[in-house]
Amino acid sequence: MDERRPIDHASEESPNSIGPELTTIEIKRAKFFSNNSNDSRENVKTSEGGETVEDELLCDTMPHLKKKLIVFLVALSCFLSPSSNVAFLPAVPILAKRFDTTSNIINLSNAIYAVVMAISPCLMSPFSDVYGRRITFLICSMGFTICTILVAVSVNLGMFFFFRCATALFGTAFFAVGGSIISDIYRPHERGNAMGWILSGSQIGPAIAPCLGGIIVTYTSWRVIFWVLVGLGCLSFCMSWLFLPETAQATIAQIIREESPNKRFVWVSYNPLTVVGALRYPNLVLAGLVSGSLLYNMYALLTPIRHVVDPRFNLTTPIYGSLFYLPPGLGYLCGSFVGGKWADYHVKKYQIIKGERIPEDRLRSMLVTFGVILPGTILVYGWALEKERGGIALPIVAMFIGGIGQTICFPSINAYCVDAMPELKGDAIASNYFTRYIAGAVGTATCLIQIDSIGIGWTCTISCFVLLGGFIASVALVYWGARMRTIRVSDSRK
């Protein structure tokens, strides 16, 4: 835990003397974390492993129906960025012809998109801690909508690349900030289910967006794909404005504003690298390896689908090739509903067995899926296509089962980041999104090159070994993650 610097009240006598009072914001940050950190309140008894009585009051006082509405809103917002990322995949050959380039270059925009998705939580998660969840959601909804409009009217490849990256910057923030909102309004043993519902929003995108994109580009212009996303962005903004309250109990800006009531707006500097700095904790590094391996596999599977299946099954129009996005997408959707409840079940089960709640026990729910089902299905998919065995049915079934396995794992690792490091607030889950989308960018950028060089079978074999590496990291977390957290706390208090 971060060391608290003693507060020099002499430097705070005059609210208008900005110099010594806020030479910076360290004093305010100390107050903020003392108000918000589940581990730092010495005078409040904790229950259920880091959850304070004050936090319980917030969880209990918010009506259940309002919580569901917030979860729906966050899920809707989380639908935007993945949909923008995959909806135009069936249109890649058309876009390449329109901008006089190659499919590999267009797919490179997806890799850059994923890199910006990794950077987004570094900027927006600390921003939400400083200024609040609500204002962050509103800014990101508006930014996503405006940038998507500019993508839709792009006249050249540079404009298309730039504003697609900007949509990633705003659209991905919903994941990290949404995870913080869930930690604000739900108790630990309920968070897995809530995270699963939020993930359902992000997984509906890969399920239906490519199919809709294929239909759109078959019968009309590729630009219509992005105009549909503009409408969804407007819906997210309106719903956030009307229904999303501020869920953070305190923000740094709010504390400063209370001490300087004459200031309507307070500028607070913050360091985006604090999110990356969270990776100095070994358990978060392992959690990043887990989620990174999952997203590498996901993007390496989705990106080249038309490139692989069109020649294999002699498909000639985008609408037919886009149907192959349905099996993994529907698997993602089904798994997101099962994974959260399955993770919460394991939390309660091992709490009864051990007499206490240990965050790492949540990860036990995904070990069989991660170690057996996911590697097995990606191998079956790749080599069935490589050797031309099993017709259409075998790769479709493998993609569907693999999709279920993929999103059984994600709610566990998302909720683990929130539960294991409550004092980091949004930085813990934001650092996880940073690592996973970097891995997704690598998968997107390299999959076509691998397929053209060594074939789909060996490309999927590489994905299998990446998944096994993530599985080893998850096993290490289950058995040694608690010890890592203990070492971290004792080291920071020396």
How would you summarize the topology of this molecule?
Layout: H1 18-21, H2 26-36, E1 46-47, E2 51-52, H3 53-61, H4 64-86, H5 92-98, H6 103-131, H7 133-152, H8 157-171, H9 173-185, H10 188-219, H11 223-243, H12 252-259, H13 273-277, H14 282-302, H15 305-313, H16 318-322, H17 326-354, H18 367-386, H19 393-420, H20 426-492
Antiparallel strand pairs: 1-2
What does this structure look like?
The chain has helices at 18-21, 26-36, 53-61, 64-86, 92-98, 103-131, 133-152, 157-171, 173-185, 188-219, 223-243, 252-259, 273-277, 282-302, 305-313, 318-322, 326-354, 367-386, 393-420, 426-492, and strands at 46-47, 51-52. It has 494 residues and is mainly α. The protein has a single domain, classed as Growth Hormone, Chain: A (Up-down Bundle). The N and C termini lie close together (10 Å).
